[in-house]
Write a structure and sequence with these properties.
Oligomer: single chain
Structural class: mainly beta
Number of domains: 2
CATH topology of the largest domain: Thrombin, subunit H
Distance between the termini: 59 Å
Low-confidence stretches: none
CATH architecture of the largest domain: Beta Barrel
Number of helices: 4
Helix content: 10-25%
Radius of gyration: 21 Å
Order of helices and strands: EEHEEHEEEEEEHEEEEEEEEEEEEH
């Protein structure tokens, strides 16, 4: 008979482990929530503490810690030990992501607009990835990050082009008008950097994502699942969800923000994402949307959850992914 190390009750279901100790799922979740709150406070207190995320290697839960220096790792370990957090900690050395501009690439306007291609703000000349074309009723919208299509100074009604001006200075065509923005708020916790574009009626579109196909629904990003994306910079890549419950510091438009409720994807070999892939939709092997890339991070991708994205803008899966009569 196995008993829970925390509540000392018999474990009737699957046994989970925290720092080698058996526990049931209720106590595991309680300890995860407790440590999530503590690490969130610690993130604001240690400047060189970049972020953290929950890892799971059946049956063990643990935390990945992203820090800029070994001294910061030592401070985090000591603080967690003093607070009796009780989780194993795996440090990964990383700098705070900065506002890096992607290198220009040669791009031509796509005859049919679909997910995974270059787009940008006409006047700001930003460049990133069009995640996908989704619909509300018969009206079609293009989705990307606000950092790409609604940068500082942008306003509703601004023209968004495909490809971006950086990628095609002389052949960037109007995709549509900036319609709704979910912009990062300085000084508060953020879960989504996104915006949508009302697609011009004469623009031919498809709900498909380049090299992947059409999204079928929305699913949650469970640790360890296989995922893929097509991005403006690195094209089609495959990877796995490394960790969830991610909270991380980022720099956008020369200001530091904190993302929460994110997840991180990495590839076993080549980088999963590069600068310029922001906005890419991330799908699982069932072509269900699990997230959208918010930023690239040492070859990994920090992503917002697909369910948060859909709810924020009022999209209703799976209907929002279905083609209209005019789609290709």
């Amino acid at each position: 008979m196995a008993t829970c190390w925390y509540c000392e009750r018999e474990i009737l279901g699957f046994r989970y482990k925290i720092a080698g100790n058996d526990c049931d799922i209720e106590c595991a979740n309680n300890q995860i929530n407790r440590s999530l709150e503590f690490l969130g406070r610690l993130l604001g207190e240690i400047s060189e503490f970049v972020g953290f995320g929950l890892g799971y290697d059946k049956p063990e839960f643990f935390w990945y810690i992203f820090a800029e220096t070994e001294d910061a790792v030592a401070s985090i370990r000591e603080a967690c030990s003093n607070a009796l957090i009780g989780f194993s900690i795996y440090p990964l050395m990383a700098n705070i992501p900065g506002g890096v501009v992607p290198e220009p690439t040669v791009a031509f306007p796509d005859r049919i607009i679909l997910g995974g291609v270059s787009l940008g703000h006409l006047n700001a000349k930003t460049s990133g990835t069009l995640g996908g074309i989704v619909r509300i009723g018969e009206q079609k919208y293009a989705v990307s990050t606000a950092s790409v299509i609604a940068p500082d100074g942008a306003k509703l009604g601004d023209v968004i082009v495909q490809p971006s001006i950086r990628d095609s200075p002389h052949r960037a065509y109007s995709l549509g008008k900036l319609a709704v923005i979910s912009k990062l708020a300085f000084g508060s916790i953020n879960d989504l950097d996104a915006a949508i574009v009302l697609v011009d009626q004469d623009v031919p579109t498809s709900p498909r994502i380049k090299d992947i196909g059409r999204p079928t629904d929305v699913a949650e990003p469970d640790i360890g699942i296989n995922v893929r994306k097509t991005g403006r910079s690195s094209g089609y890549t495959e990877g796995k969800v490394l960790c969830t419950d991610v909270r991380i510091k980022v720099i956008k438009e020369n200001q530091q923000f904190i993302f929460q409720d994110q997840f991180i994807i990495m590839s076993d070999s080549d980088p999963f994402a590069e600068v310029g892939d922001e906005g890419s939709f991330v799908l699982n092997n069932n072509n269900e949307l699990v997230g959208m890339i918010q930023l690239s991070f040492h070859g990994m991708a920090v992503c917002a959850r697909g369910s948060v994205l859909m709810n924020r803008f009022g999209f209703t899966p799976p209907f929002c992914f279905e083609p209209t009569e005019e789609d290709f």
